[in-house]
Amino acid sequence: LANGFGGQLWNTGEFTNNGTIDTTTGVFVNFGTLNGSGHIKGSWYDHGKFKPGNAAGAMTIDGDYFKVEGSKEIDLGGLLDGGDDKSLTEFDWIDVTGNVELAGLLNVELIDGFELHRGNMFEFLRVGGTLTGQYDGLDEGALVGNFGGEDLFVTYTAGSGNDVALYTIPEPTTLLLALVAVPLRVRCGVR
């Protein structure tokens, strides 16, 4: 899907992007629902519902991403991000080469029978430029939800320092106590 006329491309329905949306000479505006594992070239203003992937998947945005309102839906089905092959990812994530401005709701769902454990981390928004804003009601370190007894939190300082991740509390660190033997001084003598 390309916009070669320097105008705006609007989505007001439900759209699955598994290809490329090219708005390098205009802007893409979403008021509906966008999902898929495709590619967006250019600026994107998201007022609607955004769910990267088809189940779990990744979407690339070559440009700036402005989450104005609406919601972002993140599915967690495992720990693998797919590395160089985004089709292998087990959780939803977005790779943005430009700047990101956040607002709106963040909704998280576990899929495929996945269970959270202590020490899990999911870097779901990678920002190549500057990150501003936060999800509605979710300050740094805020509780996103409890899933099967494990609390899930959000951070806006993951990865390169301005990426967004979900995490559980790390495993307790085992501390080894070193006992230092202090010799006792015994005074012998008569007073």
Which terms would index this structure?
47% strand, mainly beta, 0% helix, globular, 191 residues, five-stranded parallel β-sheet, twelve-stranded mixed β-sheet, disordered N terminus
Q: How would the blueprint of this fold be written?
A:
Blueprint: E1 8-11, E2 14-16, E3 20-30, E4 33-36, E5 39-46, E6 49-52, E7 58-62, E8 65-67, E9 71-76, E10 93-96, E11 100-102, E12 105-110, E13 121-127, E14 131-133, E15 143-147, E16 150-158, E17 163-167
Summed over residues and divided by their number, the pLDDT gives a mean of 86
Radius of gyration: 23 Å
- Tally the helices: what do you get? 0
Let me know the number of strands. 17
Shape: globular
**Uncertain residue segments:** 1-5, 174-186
**What is the SS-derived class?**
mainly beta
Helix content: under 10%
Q: What portion of residues belong to β-strands?
A: over 45%
Query: What's the N-to-C terminus distance?
Result: 101 Å
Order of helices and strands: EEEEEEEEEEEEEEEEE
Report the biggest beta sheet as strand number plus sense, adding barrel if it closes.
Answer: 12 strands, mixed
